[in-house]
Amino acid sequence: MPAGKRIKYFFIRSLVISMGKLAAVTPEKMMYRACARLALFGYRKVPSFSKLARKHLEIAFGNEKTPEEIEEILRQTYINYGKNLAEFLMIPHKSAEWVQSRVKFNDPGGYLDAELAKGKGVIAIGAHVGNIELVCAWIGVNKLPMVTVVKAQREEIMTKFITETRLKWDTKMIFRAKGVRRECVRQLGLNKIVGLVADQNAASNGVFVDFFGKKAATATGAADIAVQLGLPALPAFLSTRNPDDTITVHVLEPILMRNTGDKDADTLYNVQLITTVIENFVRKYPTEYFWWHRRWKTQPENPTA
Predict the structure, then answer these.
(1) Contact, 272 vs 210, CB < 8 A?
(2) Do residues 7 and 77 lie in contact, with contact meaning Cβ atoms separated by under 8 Å?
(3) What one-character DSSP code corresponds to residue 258?
(4) Cα(110)–Cα(252) distance, rounded to whole angstroms?
(5) Strand partners, 218
(6) pLDDT digits (tens, 9 = 90+) for 131-187
(7) Cβ(228)–Cβ(267) under 8 Å?
C-alpha cells in the first residue's frame, strides 16, 4: 500500500477502532438506536443514495406497491443497515459467546448437514441480504468448514479493514481472481462449503436472466461448477433481523441443476433458477436487501434478449 494510503488507512482504522471500543462499552440498545438514527440522517440528507435505492425498489415493486409502501420499505432498510453498522462496530470487540447469542440458525430440513454428509462439498449460494459480517463471524465461531469467494472493495483501505475484521473470527476467504474456479473445485473436493454470492451485476461476464421482471447480468460460476461436479446449489446463510435485534440465518431447499448436454441452454436455465430463489427471498424480506447495489446496471444490447 502506498505511503499516502497507509496514512489514510491508519486514521480511518483508528477512528473505526475507537468507535468500536466505544460501541463495546455502550449499552447495546443505545448503540442500535444511535446507528439507526445515523442511517436515517443519511436517508434524509444524502439524497443521491436514497434516490438510487428508491429507483431500484421501484423497478422491483413499482407495479405491486404504492409509492408510500415503497418509501416505507426504503426507510426500514436504512434502519436495518444502521443496525448492521452497529454490529460491525461491535463484533471485533465482543466474545464468541456474544456472537452466538446474536444469531439463530434456521435449517428445518437439515439440508446443510445432509449435503456435507455426501462428502462432495457444498455450493452455498448467498446474496446481499441481512448482516453479512455477523454471519461471517458466526460461521467462524462455529468452525464450519467454509470458504467464501469475495470481491475486493474498490477502495483498498476498506478491503484491508473488512478482511482484518473477518480474520479475527477465522473466516476463510478466496478473492476473485484468475484461477478462482479451480480453487473452488479443489475446496469442494475437500468437502468444504464454498460460499458464492449470486446477486451482483456481472457486466459482460454473465448471462441475462430475469430479476424482478427486468434483465440482470448474472454470474454463471456457481451453476457451472454445480453442473461440472453434479452438485445442487444450496441457498444458505441468508440472514434476517428479528424484533429483538438477533438475526436468523436461513438455509433453503437445495436447487437441483439441469444438465441435458446443451451447455448454454442449461447454464441460462440454472442461473435463472438460482436468481428466482433469491428474488423470492427478497420479496419476502425486502427491508433486508442491499438496494444500493446497481443490480441492473448492465443491460443487453437487444432489449428483448
Answers:
(1) yes
(2) no
(3) P
(4) 9
(5) 201, 207
(6) 999 999 999 999 999 999 877 555 565 666 677 777 777 778 787 767 789 999 999
(7) no
